[in-house]
Design a protein that fits this description.
This protein has 126 residues and is mainly α. It has three helices and no strands. 30% of the residues lie in helices and 0% in strands.
Amino acid sequence: MRSLFTVDYPDPNNLLAQVWWSQEQGFGRQDWSNNVFDQLVDRAAAEMNTDRRMALYRDAERLLLEEAGGVLLAHPLNLELRKPWLKELKKIKPVIPISPGTTASIRICILRNINRRRLPGYLLRR
């Protein structure tokens, strides 16, 4: 079965717990089940130390992939380019990929012919 899931918030728990955590057969998005995976995801959700938490999620994802409970085709990665004269724009923390070497889809939009004189003064570097 092929399924598309887009995360609701930038945290591995959103994908691993909502999509792959075991549920009674027929009630989840899929029917793969693994108690060790569930325990890893539960421990990670309760862990306050970011490094240990991410390590638990990596172990859970590794188990998911090794058992072929699911095949993750892509982890989108959001990037942004900024002109050097823009300042004080709030940066949005991107979704953290939980596996190294994942495929990233990059979309770059470049605005041309921006009239710097029409931008609010607080956006321009002094």
